[in-house]
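Below is how a single chain appears once it has passed through the pipeline. First comes the sequence as given, then the structure the pipeline wrote out for it. We keep one example in the README because the format questions we get most often are answered faster by looking than by reading.
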Amino acid sequence: NRNLLDEISAGAKSYMTRTRPLELPETLYQKLADPDFHVFYRAPALIVISAAAQGPWIEADGALAAENLMLAAQAQGLGSCWIGLSQPFLATPEGRALAQLPKEENPVAPIAISRPAQADAPTPRQPVVARWIA
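Resulting structure:
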C-alpha cells in the first residue's frame, strides 16, 4: 500500500525532526527535513519485525530474523535495507497504529524491500577485522 508507506515515511520524518530522539549527524536531520526525501526510498514493501515487550534478547532475536530475511531477499534478487530512521516513530502510538503493531510488541527491524535500482551496486565498507580470543 504505497499510500500507507508514504504516510509512515511522512510520520517518521516529522517525528524525527520534531523530537530528535537519536544523536545523528546534522546532515541526516537536514535530509529528513527535505520534502522530497522518502525514508523508505519509495520501496514498494515494508516488513516490520517486532517482538514482545518482555525478554532480555528481543533486539538480538529481531536483528537475527532481519538478517535472515535480508539474506533470503538477496537470494531472490531483491534489495533490502534496514530503515532505522523509521524505528523511533514506529514505536509511538501513531506509528504502531499505522503499522498495525499490537501494543505489547516493539518494532525491532523495519526492512524495506524492493528490486535493486542497479544490479550489484557496490557499497563502500570498512575492512572486516576478526579477533580470535584464546
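The longest strand covers residues 105-114.

See the next section for the split statistics.
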